[in-house]
Write a structure and sequence with these properties.
single chain, about 350 residues, alpha/beta, Metallo-beta-lactamase, Chain A, 2 domains, 5-stranded mixed sheet, binds zinc ion
Length: about 350
């Protein structure tokens, strides 16, 4: 537990094997109200750790009055339902959170066949699409493990862009920042010039912008626009949901945008020779630069799917900008450089 400013604490919630590491949860204190941002994934270690850190501040779960979720990814909101049970706190999330929970719910029966169909449509060979099939024992095991990280919950209060949440002397301006997830919000606290950036801006990781189960026409375009909007804010300190706090927000935003622009240029160059599918594009790119670069063929099944989804976010953006056109061949979507 670290005190960041008057009435603002950072709580580290451990989450083993998470690609992005532990979660930074934040506690904001009003006079009699306590708001918890992103309680983390549902693990006993995480729950106990959160309880211990709250006790260091002289609080218990029962004191939490509001739980605010930056976006409905399991590492951020999996524990929200369990904390709510102990506290009767109200869960607050963006109005799009409902759609995200529905499409990401790990136990949802329709999810896996839809995923197989989606993979085939984007050019994955049958054996790989079927590795994502519901009868695959490895996938079943993985799905069951993921399901444990989430306690079922519903949101009590939905919020929209530009709304303000007040808490004692603190206030949080809601900034809808879709791209990493359609429901992602950042929160700006003007008196301390603090930005709670969630996963939208991280100091050492380029966020995944994917296009799989949501219906957005241009998630990468949304992501870049939401980044550019944040550059206008007067920010002294950025408090992200993973890794460490940092101060130079515009510089980090520039780095992230450049990273996506470089990848887009590379993808466009790969389309120079012939039209390709999202699967072909993903398989011609080296992924996971932080891990030293991994060839697509060497990625685990779920990471391959994320890679295809990541390539697709670029292709959709290029289609939106008029740089590529799509066409169907044998029920598979191809992208052609205009
Ligand atoms: Zn996330
Ligand atoms: Zn995260």
């Amino acid at each position: 537990m670290t005190q960041i400013a008057d009435g603002i604490y950072q709580l580290k919630v451990p989450f083993a094997n998470n690609p992005q590491g532990d979660i930074n949860s934040y506690l904001l204190c009003g006079s009699k109200e306590y708001l918890l941002i992103d309680p983390g994934a549902n693990t006993d270690t995480g729950f106990d750790s959160l309880q211990r850190q709250l006790a260091e501040i002289g609080l218990g779960f029962k004191d939490i009055t509001r739980i605010l979720i930056t976006h409905c990814h399991i590492d951020h909101y999996g524990l929200a339902g369990r904390v709510k049970e102990r506290s009767q706190a109200k869960i607050i999330a963006h109005s799009r959170a409902k759609d995200v929970i529905q499409t990401r719910e790990p136990t949802r029966e329709k999810g896996i066949p839809q995923r197989e169909q989606w993979l085939k449509l984007n050019g994955a060979p049958s054996f790989e699409a079927e590795a994502n099939h519901q009868h695959d024992p490895q996938l079943q095991k993985q799905t069951a493990e993921i399901a444990k990280l989430f306690v079922s919950m519903t949101t009590d209060i939905t919020i929209e862009d530009n709304e303000t949440i007040s808490l004692g002397g603190l206030s949080l301006k809601v900034l809808w920042a879709p791209g990493h997830s359609p429901d992602h919000i950042c929160l700006y606290e003007p008196s301390n010039k603090i930005l709670f950036s969630g996963d939208h801006v991280l100091p050492g990781t380029i966020p995944q912008v994917s296009s799989e189960s949501h219906s957005e026409t241009n998630p990468l375009g949304d992501f870049i626009s939401s980044l550019n909007r944040l550059k206008q804010l007067d920010v002294n300190l950025v408090l992200p949901a993973h890794e460490h706090q940092f101060s130079d927000l515009p510089a980090r935003i520039e780095e992230v945008i450049q990273n996506f622009q470089q990848r887009s240029a590379k993808i466009l160059a790969l389309l120079n020779t012939e039209p390709k599918t999202a699967y072909q594009i993903a398989s011609e790119i080296v992924w996971r630069p932080k891990a030293g670069g991994v060839k697509f063929q060497d990625l685990e099944t779920w990471r391959k799917r994320m890679a295809i989804s990541g390539a697709l976010a670029h292709l959709k953006a290029m289609k939106f900008e008029g740089k590529v056109t799509t066409f169907f061949r044998d029920d598979i979507i191809y992208y052609r450089h205009n």
